[in-house]
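Thread: Newbie trying to understand structure tokens

Hi all, I'm a second-year student working on a class project, and my supervisor (Dr. K.) asked me to get a predicted structure for one chain before our next meeting. I've only ever worked with sequences, so writing a 3D structure as a token string is new to me. If someone could post the tokens and maybe explain what I'm looking at, I'd be very grateful. Here's the chain:
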Amino acid sequence: MEKELWKGNEAIAEAAIRAGCDCFFGYPITPQSEVPEYMSAHLPKAGGVFLQSESEVAAINMVYGAAAAGANARQMEAARAYAAALGLAFQLRDDMLDVLGDAEKMGKATGMDANKNTFVALYGVGECSKMIERYTSEAVAALALFSDTQFLSELAQRLALREY
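---
Reply by user tm_fold:
Sure, no problem. This is what the structure looks like when written as tokens:
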């Protein structure tokens, strides 16, 4: 056997892959270790799923939800893709409603984000509408690995068109 020299964190990540790890859910905080970096590059090559979330709480909730539902690695990735696309479409629509929405219908003042770097400020209303369509389509497409997806599909579509 040939000797190899490894960084400690990379050796841990490679050992996990060789031991059968097929999923990584994590949130790289500063200072970030080499573990997520190594896993993101090598786990998919080994047939696994690497998922980087927006927070530690989101990462562990993804693991709990997928495990409780008995999902396999591909379904976990599809669920993550659905949630990410749905979240972006929701935020885009929220930013648009701050500009175009009816304060009475929404139950809150509009124009509150006028001095913020929102999607509308960065891309404009027209481009945001196109992005909502794209992310909503991506969310619905991510459901292909599951059965009985009518509710989640309708949820994505209704959130994209919401008026409040």
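A couple of things are worth pointing out once you decode it. The two ends are 64 Å apart (CA to CA). The chain has a mean pLDDT of 86. Feel free to ask follow-ups in this thread.
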